[in-house]
């Protein structure tokens, strides 16, 4: 059997079909989402092909396929609706978000329409009126930065297809974070920031009184229902037991029941353990984003 690339690799795979099939083999090109006794390959169209590892004839790693601007914009739009702060306002292609100044994601303006206007002074004034510094969230290719523009907080935005799922009995899912959830989470994020969502639903998961996380289901302009994982944390004395994986799969199972067909997560680029965790559950890099301060 050929050596298998890592999860997340884009591959060209040839495999045997059941005996008697004409033709006897088939091919698929896409990203590896799971490696084991069976392989899951997600195609560019979003279909997931399941292949028995024993039937693999050849597999060849490919360079990453380019992501279209509109795909980035659709995902970022759904993500912004899933973490909108407690106050938000549209300004000529920009979505301005304010969440008591807690977390950069809930307190930044993000360009979401194809031609966002040059309104940096107005954006700065909007945040100044709320006693906050103006911060831009700038995804790849959605807004042109100056060549020497300082940036901070680079995020890897990862995505995957949802094909099925169920909430495991061990994962408690609630519409609001309870006292146990808030006690376990290391960041003191106001509840109204955590529960805010625009035209969607949000849920909070707890596992074994040791792991917590959040998932929001929102709709992109192209109609895709996205599930966004965030605020995932495992108590230090409970790590390396697979709790984060079980928790995330439970939350994504809940999201699938709400009609989500794709999922995303935003991870700091220097957080290798988190990136590896999500890659092992079928997520692959979609694009990157970073923050720019206006003052």
TrEMBL record:
CDD domains: NAT_SF (cd04301). InterPro entries: Acyl_CoA_acyltransferase, Bact_Acetyltransf, GNAT_dom, Rv0428c-like_C, SH3_Rv0428c. Residues 143-295 form the N-acetyltransferase domain. GO terms for molecular function: acyltransferase activity, transferring groups other than amino-acyl groups. The keyword Acyltransferase applies. Keywords: Acyltransferase, Transferase. Gene3D superfamilies: 3.40.630.30. It comes from the Bacteria. This is GNAT family N-acetyltransferase. The lineage of its organism: Bacteria, Bacillati, Actinomycetota, Actinomycetes, Mycobacteriales.
């Amino acid at each position: 059997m050929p050596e298998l690339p890592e999860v997340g690799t884009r591959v060209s795979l040839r495999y045997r079909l059941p005996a008697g099939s004409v033709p006897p083999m088939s091919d698929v090109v896409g990203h590896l989402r799971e490696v084991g006794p069976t392989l899951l390959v997600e195609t560019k169209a979003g279909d997931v092909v399941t292949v028995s590892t024993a039937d693999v004839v050849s597999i060849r790693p490919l360079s990453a396929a380019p992501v279209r601007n509109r795909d980035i914009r659709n995902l970022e739009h759904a993500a912004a609706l899933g973490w909108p702060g407690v106050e938000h306002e549209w300004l000529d292609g920009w979505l301005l978000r304010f969440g008591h100044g807690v977390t950069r994601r809930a307190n930044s303006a993000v360009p979401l329409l194809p031609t966002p206007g040059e309104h940096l002074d107005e954006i700065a004034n909007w945040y100044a009126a709320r006693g906050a510094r103006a911060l831009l969230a700038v995804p790849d290719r959605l807004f042109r930065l100056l060549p020497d523009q300082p940036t901070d907080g680079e995020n890897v935005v990862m995505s995957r297809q949802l094909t099925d799922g169920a909430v495991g009995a061990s994962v408690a899912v609630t519409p609001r974070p309870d006292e146990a959830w808030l006690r376990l989470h290391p960041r003191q994020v106001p509840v109204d920031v955590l529960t805010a969502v625009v035209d969607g639903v949000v849920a909070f998961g707890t596992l074994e009184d040791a792991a917590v996380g959040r998932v929001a289901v929102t709709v992109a302009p192209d109609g895709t229902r996205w599930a966004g994982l965030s605020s995932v944390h495992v108590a230090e004395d409970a790590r390396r037991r697979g709790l984060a994986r079980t928790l995330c799969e439970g939350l994504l199972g809940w999201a699938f029941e709400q009609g989500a067909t794709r999922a995303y997560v935003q991870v700091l680029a220097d957080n290798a353990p988190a990136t590896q965790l999500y890659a092992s559950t079928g997520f692959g890099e979609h694009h990157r984003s970073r923050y720019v301060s206006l003052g």
